[in-house]
Amino acid sequence: MKLVRGIQNWPADERGCALTIGNFDGIHRGHQQLVRRTVELGHELGVPSAILSFEPTPREYFCASGAPGRIGTLRGKLRDLEALGLDRLIVQRFGRAFATLEAPVFIHEVLVQRLGVRALVVGDDFRFGARRAGDLDLLRQAGQRHGFHVEAIASVVHAGVRCSSTAVREALACADLERAEDLLGRPYALVGRVRGGLKLGRRLGMPTANVVLRRMPALRMGVYAVTLRVLNWAGAPAWPGVANLGVRPTLGLTRCLLETHVLGECRDLYGLTVEICFRRFLRPEARFDSLEALGAQMQRDKAAALAFFASKPA
Predict the structure, then answer these.
(1) Per-residue pLDDT averaged across 113-122, rounded?
(2) Among 224, 247, 276, 300, which lies 20 to 30 A Cα-Cα from 306?
């Protein structure tokens, strides 16, 4: 799968695609149905299947302080979409110029002229263009004029709940990992690259693999029993671990970091891409009066994670 950074970088000699549009945060069951149908149409028409997504999201652009947390990361999105067979992910910068495109202009300049859309798959409540004035009827009219197929997919309902990013965020906000897994169709995980840090965990006897999160996550801040898997290594095991997701208030910091301590022997992970799968919420994030108090709590968290994994079948 190829990552295309902006519609201006769509290959000029690659005319035509089967497309779906949206943020696709989390790739839940509803997203999966949209992507699978887009991939099917791409195969039928002999053109690449693609998603047009946005960075920042429209809600982050229009109301940064009130925007919801992110379910996943870009690396995680790429991994999940590739597994579904998608050919292209277009990440379009969402700024003033794009936000003010009128719906008919978006259809003509983006869908028809730039991407040469042959088939378009959207949700049955899809809206687009400035002031969200564009709707499914407008798309179908345009499809008849310009010769592209428009298909609407109904919402996916699982266990009586509509699968949506909002529903996933609500589950993550209260650390209901079982409900999130039902909506996603897989255990909840975050994917990122391990970076160097302050090495505070090493000083406190618990070295960690650190993943910086560019956007505030939807998952509740706190300490979790997790498994860590290195995506760069074929057949890599999933090591048990304990992870802290938060801004490290004891140190007076504000940037969100995911710090994972592997329970057992593990090679140096710096620079590698890892998947952190969240298994059990242990406690909320807290501020401690001293590094000694923090270190003591970290050892208790480690013991709690070890007890959790000991209770699980091999």
Answers:
(1) 97
(2) 247
